[in-house]
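Input chain follows. Return C-alpha cells only.
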Amino acid sequence: MKKDVMELEKKYLIQTYARSPLVIEKGKGCWVWDTKGRKYLDFVSGLGVNVLGHAHPRIVKAIRDQAGKIIHVSNLYYHPYQGLLAAALANVTGMDRAFFCNSGTEAVEGAVKLARACAGRLRKGKFEAVALDNSFHGRTLGALSATGQEKYRKDFEPLVPGFHFVRLNDVKDLEAHVNENTCALILEPIQGEGGIYEASAEFMEAAAALAKRFQALLIFDEIQCGLGRTGTFM
C-alpha cells in the first residue's frame, strides 16, 4: 500500500514538496501511525495546525455534529459561529477585527493588500515593503515576493515589485530601507523555515518605531500559537 500511494502521488501530483517516505494512516494525541502499524511521536503537528493533537474527542465530536448539519456556508450569508470566533480572537489578541483565510500564504497576501490599500489613501507611491533576508512567507506571487530566499524566488521572477530585504537584527540596515514610500514591514519574530533565528528586542523595537514614524503596517508572520499564523499591527 505504501508503494502504491507514493507512486500515485509521484505520477499524478505536481511535485512541489519533497516528502519523507512515510504514509501516515491515523493519529491519537501526539502520536501517529503509518500503514504498517508503526508508531511515531509527532513533533511536526501539521506545521502547527494540529496543536491540540490528533483525534481530540471534543474536536472530533464538534466536527461530526457540524457535518451532520451543514459543512459549508459561503460568505454570501451568515452562520452562527464565525462572529463568535472573530470576537474571541479579538478579545485574546487585543485587536479590533479578524480575517479568516485558508493558509498562512493567504494571510500574508491579505496583510500586504491591506497595507497597500491603507497606504494608498495616505499618499500615491507608498507601496513598498521591507522584509528580512532568509525569510519565508509563502508561495503565491505576493508572499513569494516578500520571501528573502533566492532558491524559492528564482523560477518565478520577475515578482511583485517594491519589496526590499534587510539583515536580521541589523538596525542600521533596517533604518536605511524604511522611508516615506514604505507601506509595510514584514517580520518573523523567530525565523522558522530559514533557520531558528530570533529577532532581538532592539530590532523589534526599532521596527515598531519606524512603522509608527512612517505610517506603515507592521506585519508579524509565523505566530503559530494555535490562533493563526499572521498578525498585523499598525
